[in-house]
Amino acid sequence: MPGVCRGFTLIEILVTISIIALLTMIGVTNFRVANQKARDGRRQGDLEQIKAALEL
């Protein structure tokens, strides 16, 4: 059919980019929280080892 243009509209592209950006932000935030919890757990273990060493 001549005159029929196929493709994505600007709104569709902007919505897609917005959704991807939102999901990326959520993923980065969750990664940071998990990283902080792991670091805190490691620190707690280190403190327990120091405490045990000082009690000897």
Automatic annotation (TrEMBL):
**Species annotation:** Candidatus Beckwithbacteria bacterium CG23_combo_of_CG06-09_8_20_14_all_47_9
Any one of the GO BP annotations: protein secretion by the type II secretion system
Cross-referenced NCBIfam families: IV_pilin_GFxxxE (TIGR02532)
The superkingdom of the source organism is Bacteria
Q: Which keywords belong to this entry?
A: Membrane, Methylation, Transmembrane, Transmembrane helix
Q: What is this protein called?
A: Prepilin-type N-terminal cleavage/methylation domain-containing protein
Q: Where are the transmembrane segments?
A: 13-33
What SUPFAM superfamilies does the entry give?
Pili subunits
